[in-house]
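Recap for those who missed Tuesday's class. We walked through two folding examples back to back. For each one, the amino acid string is listed first and its predicted structure tokens come directly after. Nothing is annotated here on purpose, so try labeling regions yourself before you check the end of the notes.
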Amino acid sequence: MRPRALRSRLLASAAVSALLALPLTALAVSPAQAATASHPFPTHTAYKVGVTPSASQSTRDAAVEKQYDSWKATYLVHGCASNEYYVSTKGDGDAPNNGPVSEGQGYGMNIVPLMAGYDAAAQTEFNGLWQLVKDHKDADGLMQWQLDGKTCAYTDTGTPDSATDGDLDIGYGLILADKQWGGYTTDAKAWLANIYAHDVASDGHLKCEDDGPSTDTRPSDHMLDHLRAFAAYDTAHDWNKVVQRTEAVDSAFSAAYSASTGLLSDFVVGANTSSPKPAPADYQESQPDNIVGYNSIRVPWHMGTDALLNGTTTAATAYGLATKESACLKAEAGGNPQNVYPHTKLNCTPYSTSDQAEEAGDSVGPAAMAAGDQAWTDAIWKQLGTNPFGDGYYGESIKTLVAIVMAGDYWNPASATAPANDFSVAVSPSAGSVAAGSSATATVSTAVTSGSAQSVALSASGLPSGATASFSPASVTAGGTSTLTVTTGTGTPAGSYPVTVTGTAASGSHTATYTLTVTSGGSGCTAGQLLGDPGFENGSNPAPWTQSSSLGFAPVTASSTDEAAHAGGWLAWLNGDSAADTDTVAQSVTIPAGCTASFSYWLHVDTTESTTTATPDTLKVQVLSSTGSVLATLHTYSNLDHLTGYAQHSHDLSAYAGQTVTLKFTGTETDANGGTTDFVFDDTALNVS
């Protein structure tokens, strides 16, 4: 990847300051006592348009946390004073000695408050970032755009000036902090007043820097979601005028130069006229400023984010541009986000294919979401977990912010209140049958539906006489699960009873229904084990088991030094072929009415996958109806469940008494990460009593 240049005046990077090696835990920033976060991560946001990645919410949250940990450890460093932090430009050479630029400082002041709650030191870090800004203002009261990493002295030639992108992000960060912790209102409004006075031209369009001409603009500064938040927060200035003029410039430019692609060039001249146009090739930087370059790769990110937060009516201009940009860049890349090139002509053909950078594809993520393109969204989300071109500060900072947006954790500070906390409750299976004097179990699942996770206390009502219910645990944090056990007495009357499971939290209560069927005690259930060939000792023809493999390898196989049986000479071995594969082993069985039933097996999982978070390889254990419909997924194992030997697992199937069901193991390997996983099981049993 070729390092991005911020301006033609850019200085070469020198050696990394020894300060960068200081651990964050050793820093001497001493702000006021940290306040409680009003929007602790993860604060899940229901966007107003589009789709989210197909990965589960918990998986997306975990990916953000992993990316944040990496970004923080690499780029958030101690400043040149004991109470300062700055975002290092390590890996990109944007300032001497990997020092800060105002753009990076703004990224940090957005990222850190969004991660408060996950990062207990977030307010300390934010205060340190803000302190460095305050200590290095130019004559207009805005941050000097480029500082040395050792001395924090201004390093560009001439009188210190600011850059509009950094100014805007710093202002937005102050609003985020004020909504997150409170106490930043005066600073935020003073900063926005300085932006309005010096970065906004008289007609309302954004200049490129505070001391720059009033005829040009940089589309990557057109952070419309920021400007709308400014308008809601700072009513002393006409930010709606800035929003409207920004949208007018972008619409007029696109109509004339990119009607089908929506792309905007790195710099635009004539922004104060009705006919804005691409800047000359080397207008401000040593790259073609008249096409998409390392500045305007950020436009789909900003346009998509505005559309997601504000919808197709309020953010009609951003939504229209984002959908066009997403479609054209997907076509340019052939659906592979690595092939979104940092330099692209306005007709959406590559200017150069020799230069690649992950941030070009990452930045399209919010636009793909707003456009509702699920496959393209998923491809970009998958890329966020990699760094194929070795991106440094610029790409990794953009990636962190894009990941927060794509995960659904990017909340809107223009809203005066935090999203209401809420949750849901579900029970699986939703019904169970027991003989009087026996017990049944089910899994109670909770999920965060808005706001933040809260403690949920569980209870049950509607039980028949002589029956009791217990939960393990009795309360969970929303997103967690509990095991419900319903125990009947020998005198519990036969019948069907709708049991109401209630979850109660500070936000209110939600319920789910579990239907309990009680049969008369002493029904004559004969205790026994019902599965045929439970240990697969019938060998290569393991009837009544059936088996299949998409690669043509029979899962039931002889014990060997590679995989030994738990007992006997045969076992079932699913996947582990270092190739994409789906293997199944299944058996149908009738569970007599009035019986309690327990299904068990011994399982060994080993893997060569190196990931500690992704689950490319899975084993589902399911109960199917006589028609093949899935009645319940008893458990899903993955490469993360590997262990050195066999472990026994069991599941209560009493709910299916009186039914003929199929017990099915399905192993799926994607071969997406290059590793492979073996799912081996043996000595199954279905015991009834």
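Example two. Treat it independently of the first, because the proteins are unrelated.
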Amino acid sequence: MRPTLRSHALAALPFAVLASSIAIAQDAATTSTHPPSKKPTTLTPVSVSAATRMPLASDPNFPATQVSVTAAQMNATVNAMDVEDATKYMPSLFIRKRNTGDTQPVLATRDWGVNSSARTLVYVDDIPISALIGNNNTNGAPRWGMVSPEQIDHIDMLYGPYSAAYAGNSMGGVMHIVTRTPDKPEVTIQQTEAIQTYDFYNTKGDYSSSKTSITAGGRSGKFSWFVGATGLNSFSQPLSYLTSANTPAGTLGTIPARNKVGQPANVIGAGGLLHTRQLNLNGKFAYDITPWLQAAYWIGFWSNHGQSRVQTYLTNPQGAPSYGKSSAFASNDYFLSAHHLMQALSLKTDTRSDVDGELVITHYDYIKDNQWSPYGVGNGATFTPNGLLASYGGTNWSTADLKGIWRPQGYGGAHEISGGAHADQYTLANPTYNLSAWPDPSSVTSLYASGRGKTTTEALWIQDAWQIAPDWLATIGGRYEKWRASDGFNFSSKTAVYQPGERATDFSPKATLRWDISPTWRITGSAAKAVRFPTVSELYQLVATGNTFASPNPNLKPERDLSGELAVEHALDDGFVRMSLFQENTRNAMINQTSTLPNYAVPVTFVSNVGAVRNRGIELVADHDNVLIQGLELSGSVTFVDSTILSNDAFASSAGTTSDGKHVPYVPRWRATAVATYRPTPAWAITLAGRYSGRQYSTMDNTDNTENVFGAFDTFVVFDLHADYQINEQLSASFGIDNLNNRQYFLYHPFPQRTYVANLKFKL
């Protein structure tokens, strides 16, 4: 699909902001009689931008490029149903959110795509919500449901693995969602309604979502607290389409179509029409033991119940509905039931003197997580009475982090040395059971299949933020990690396999050098090594091919990543511009691809190591206020990535194709965001925003060249409209339209079409 005029205009907006910023800067330089101010630039409440102030020496975890979005920015610019929406316009980021209440929204960064959940880290405060049990689009997605948009104070995104404080999973970046705690009593009640108009193939309808949120917080002496409850009731568009290479015998109604590689894939129905009911309860409680020592406890409970239904396009010659003997209808008709519990304890000091420390212990537990569906289809539009129940109940992870900070020359001195110890354990429990009566999850008869195992990691790290000179800051550190996988077990078709354990150790050095050329210009260079160890799902997920049962690779090697970035930033009174050049070389990248299994002639798909992958590109980010007229604020970004497979001996193709020299799957060459906000009065904020994603592939040999079909990854341009009105001090309202231009596109799944969103918030 050729880029349209709209996509060119969207991509050009950041360059226009950049040009206006430079012009205004030059004009200010010639007309002002005062030297540039050395105080930090204060961003307005609607900018989505990188920090242009000098990072504080007391925060050694963020030595390189970062961007931030605040609650005020989110309220003014975003139609926020879920917490993922808050990041919608941050540079180079994309969260694959298929529907409101989606349980599988994976974060993609500028150099890794939506199949790389274990290549980024996501935290709520100091609590990891990244599900490092997998590296995929399903059970590997971060547990976003543990926080709601109303609780956010701000979100920080660190690009790249340049801090020793984080594991090698930070190669794509680290996202910190920071919640707020009111200093005085506060109660907020918020109601959000959305309705999507959808029309594709033979599925047409309006799909609504309703969310009610209540938060309360405050402080009483040494005790502070913040609690929240959010209820969601959502209906989604089809999340999949059911296809067949031929017209099922004895049926009518097939829609001729092709799949992503151009082969016949006629559409026979829609699936994944999901009705979701979610409840999120959470609380944060803190006690100031002394003026410099605080203890805190976090708890979050997430409940999800859903039902997915199917719509057949097929009929028999008499006009009665039919499933055409296609088992795909059975797998797309299912029930969901899940209860997850998150807890954390912390002890933290803030002495503002020579030494500080922090201890954080967390635990995340899948108390219950079941999905059950019929085993197959019967005659006409019926299902078999028996079925399958897949469970993640018992899956969990625990983490512990001990960190200390030593300031040899006192608070604000030239050195700030930080270090710490980390330990984690991720446990996967994924049995599938036979059901005698599939709508009844208690009718379990026997074990159908199983996969389980665990991984543990222990790490030590140290880092020194050293102010070499007034304008030079060097941050140098390293991380030593020891990893182990154990207790791997697979069962299927009466065959049990006890998988071998694995061990690995590695050391990852980090370095960042920042030069403040002047009060308004900065250059930052960063280099780092990162090591990502296999997740338990990558190691022990069962591959069944005929009567052959094998692990994808019980000897899977860790992937080793070398990253570098050169960033140039220029701060203005009303904005900033930044250009970043980045490159990342990864050896033994773990990617799901077609390869061979011993004693089986036909290539199959499983996780294996790719010899070498290179990601390199350029990112331009700009932000400017009061452009042309007072109250008009523009921000945007453009990112180009050349993501190339340099060598891959494991790839096998029956068609004789190769993956060497091809583009890495799921990484678009171009991304762009553009946000224009106009404030005609202090009470109003009206935003028009756009997102562009260029060509990307989902196959290693880049043979998926058919667009706008189920399974494809399409180029898209999507515009959103948002208007926020502060009625009075207690009451505010907003209205918006997502996908204003009603772009119909697939990212494997069909994505939402035009959606209307309204919100009313009352604050006591």
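Answers for example two:
Helices lie at 5-31, 71-77, 328-331, 536-540.
DSSP finds four helices and 37 strands in the chain.
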